[in-house]
Amino acid sequence: MKEMQFSIEIHAAKVRVWDTLWQDQTFREWAGIIDPETYLVGVLKEGNEVQFISAANGYGVTSLVEKLVASEFLLLRHRADTQENGKREREKEWTGGTESYSLAEKDGTTTLTVAFDVPPELEEYFKVNYPKALERVKVLAERKRL
Fold this sequence. Notes:
Blueprint: E1 2-10, H1 14-22, H2 24-34, E2 38-41, E3 49-54, E4 60-69, E5 73-83, E6 88-89, E7 98-106, E8 109-118, H3 123-142
Helix pairs in contact: 1-2, 1-3, 2-3
């Protein structure tokens, strides 16, 4: 696998960016850019397993929450690729890879840095789509609450 990394500056407090990343509705909005209709199953808590599932194709990944510091850092270790909405294992495309989210705030602006391992055949896809997903996180986090 190849490690990729992307960063974006967001004019919002890191707690707001964190909530945008991981609250169900906003998670679906930005993650769906990468894999249509993606949703999270489980609770983001250190030591827990969670699943990221695409409702569009039923494929997903089961990951261990290896480290979590709320509003600052999340490290996931991908344990198994799944199909049938997480019920059955499939090829080991993502197994063993890691994915991290780091947030650093200065003067009301948060820098979000995402680093993850990706299979070489998907590198170009992620080069195009991950920046779009992060731009969506930015828009959602910066949007004024009604």
